[in-house]
Amino acid sequence: xxxxxxxxxxxxxxxxxxxxxxxxxxxxxxxxxxxxxxxxxxxxxxxxxxxxxxxxxxxxxxxxxxxxxxxxxxxxxxxxxxxxxxxxxxxxxxxxxxxxxxxxxxxxxxxxxxxxxxxxxxxxxxxxxxxxxxxxxxxxxxxxxxxxxxxxxxxxxxxxxxxxxxxxxxxxxxxxxxxxxxxxxxxxxxxxxxxxxxxxxxxxxxxxxxx
Length: 211
What we know:
The chain is 34% helix and 25% strand. It has 6 helices and 7 strands, in the order ααββαββαβααββ. Strand 4 (104-110), helix 4 (119-129) and strand 5 (130-141) form a beta-alpha-beta unit.
């Protein structure tokens, strides 16, 4: 979850709430399946409090993570201290990644695109730091294909953005990844069981830089 504006709520209260919400039930368990395709040198954008760490496949023993929120990174430090995965963490924004071109085999984004102030810039940066045969592995909530649900997503955006520190409900995930120059290796879309339709339309898949 990436957001540059800091304050008491964003820095202290929201990270704790986010960590609790992201650890709930089926949503948390779905991470394991989403992360199965990772390989090689891995960058996780919006690493947040490190909720993904327990869900990476066993061969993964190190990765690089970025997040601009110091409150998130403090919680991440506690979670990763004795974890089997060593995390090289950077306070940075996804639209200005502090890494050289073609540095990673996999970039991971889970529940992150929704809160990026500059998604196009971030996706361009992801493509830049991926190797030509690299992959973007993602699990994101976003725009519902049902008009009635999408209308409610737009109505709720103001409240969602305020209380979820920049998060939007109606991000057209598939369209924006394609427009950034990626082809889909696979893509699954649908409502998450047990979640509200406005918040629970998920996009899960793997995308590769288009040749």
